[in-house]
Amino acid sequence: MGLPDDYRAMARIRRFEERLTALKDAGEIPGSIHLCNGQEAIPVGAARTLRDGDYVTATYRGHGWALARGVDMAGLFAEMMGRDSAVNGGRAASPYLSDPGRWFVGENSIVGAGVPIATGAALTAQRTGSGAVSVVSIGDGAMNQGNVHEALNMAAVLDLPLVLVVENNVYSEMSRIEDMVRVRQLAERAAGYGIPGRVVDGNDPDAVAEAVGEAVTRAREGSGPSIVEAMTERLVGHYSGDAQHYRPAGEVAAAREREPLARIRAAADADLAARLDVIDAEVAAEVEAAIAAARAVPYPDPATVKEYVYV
Amino acid sequence: MSESLRYIQAVNAALTWALDSRSDTVYFGEDVALPGGPFGATKGLHKRFGSERIFDTPISETGFLGMALGAAMTGLRPIAEIMYADFTFVAMDQIVNQIANIRYSSAGRWKAPLVIRMQQGYSPGACAQHSQSIEAYLAHTPGLRVALPSTPDDAYQMLRTAVVSDDPVVVAEARMLYPTRGPVRTDAPVEPVGGARVVRDGRDATVVAWSRMVPAALAAADELAAEGIETEVIDLRWLNPLDFETVGASISRTGRLVVAHEANLTGGFGAEIAARAASECFTDLRAPVARVAAPDVPMPAAPALQKAVVPEAAHVVEAVRRTVNR
Ligand SMILES: Cc1ncc(C[n+]2csc(CCOP(=O)(O)OP(=O)(O)O)c2C)c(N)n1
């Protein structure tokens, strides 16, 4: 743990998504992709506090969570290429993938819907006494979904080991969160459920790990759910192809100065910078190898299209 | 061994069996624990099994159906109760987008062995939001199993089947049938999912019905027999998996088909049965398929108005006569 490891974990996500964008532009990825460029410190910081057996549920913007929890990178590329991947056999693609082998309950492309499901994973942990916790990530806009409200209140009254991470990247698609709520911080809503809520710098993996770690400990001890609101910014559009005309001039450029990787780079002395260069090169090689492996995965056999509807 | 039980008691017996014989089951919903459920379906279960196994949720259908899914994916076998089928509509996302999809979209890597128990249909004075028969909405969605027991024995057997199934099953009971009494085979082995049943033989016409319309169709068949018309009655039991084989075989004997359900006519599951009959039994049919259903109006509350829309045995009698006399 610590700086070089976090840097590598975040660089893997960044590089994965940069290459994904290029593959999308080249026509190798059908369908929409939603990138977490700029938000990598949140899954990376949170994952540091988790063990094998802990569940993670994310949104369509969940590639970072999948990678941070150890889902196979080549499998992710193959899945997004519409190939017969070992992840989900081309049935899920970018916005709805999951991996039980890594306790990744999965992404969800219905806003907020993962929170009740993550609450169910927390129920299993509680009823079986497994000691696991269930972490679920959503965006700021999802806080206005009824399903999130229902699940949070239920998790609170049942004292379930749930941690809700709200990745506040200012926008929900093209709308600013300040136009959609009357609270200054979304974590203030925790008081309405009688649970703790904290706001942290979502561009700092240490800050995220500290806050999520506290919530995870509380959950493991049987003291119930918490909300961690991680403040961050999107470096790219909501989806591939979003021209972002709704963002004021200079906003993205300013965000690029504050994003987690740039921050580490800016603070690095020559020694560290050299080590980071090595990491970047290793990550780039890992990502290229994953793409090559993904390209070798065949497309799914259309004859199998009706498989898996029922057991 | 067979016991004489009311429908609702058979539900209670099946739930007792589930909590007793499977340690991975948990039961939740609104007012189901200490209160024993609004209709007594869970009477005594909390006392016997405790809050670890059966507990009350907030009034949060989306929340607790999603919780059922997450719990099912990770190793429990939840049974979630929707108090009235009408309340399903506030939670359709969790049923249609989540529960029904997860196995397919993960290429079989997750499964969702859960049961959603509900009761449906009209009763005198119940308003439009406590009266609907919603099975067609559910049967439209691949990934779900849909069960509609019409007798105390089926209320017991089909609920146990649902609990054991590794696929998500919606069991929609008929509130109006809760007081009906019948023999329940409490020691029968758990049946596999699916299967329609010929509940009365007849050579002149086939009536396919489910839920409350099964006893109505049987009463109609008695009346028709007095006129010399022999009606075969099929209790469809499961809309998914659909046992059309049993229906088709009956049509090949009778040449005439009437489908009867309490739900509205347009887009009702009767339309699916009629369409299948048209494409698979065309040459066997000697008369147009007839449908008995509520007309396309919301359910009124006043009993005088309900009488004008709710299908009963008399409507089945009339439809069979029309079909036979062509
Ligand atoms: C129920 C539902 N409504 C609308 C959408 C369309 N939609 C997809 S993402 C999104 C914005 C969500 O914003 P936020 O929760 O802040 O997350 P972010 O995309 O910023 O990560 C919307 C409205 C959807 N997928 N599901």
TrEMBL record, chain A:
Pfam families: E1_dh. Keywords: Oxidoreductase, Thiamine pyrophosphate. InterPro entries: DH_E1, PDH_E1_Alpha_Subunit, THDP-binding. The keyword Nuclease does not apply. Its cofactor is thiamine diphosphate. Residues 9-302 form the Dehydrogenase E1 component domain. This is Dehydrogenase E1 component domain-containing protein. It comes from Micromonospora gifhornensis.
From TrEMBL, chain B:
Residues 5-180 form the Transketolase-like pyrimidine-binding domain. InterPro entries: THDP-binding, Transketo_C/PFOR_II, Transketolase-like_Pyr-bd, Transketolase_C. Keywords: Oxidoreductase, Pyruvate, Thiamine pyrophosphate. Its cofactor is thiamine diphosphate. SMART domains: Transket_pyr. Signal peptide: none annotated. Gene3D superfamilies: 3.40.50.920, 3.40.50.970. This is Pyruvate dehydrogenase subunit beta. It comes from Micromonospora gifhornensis.
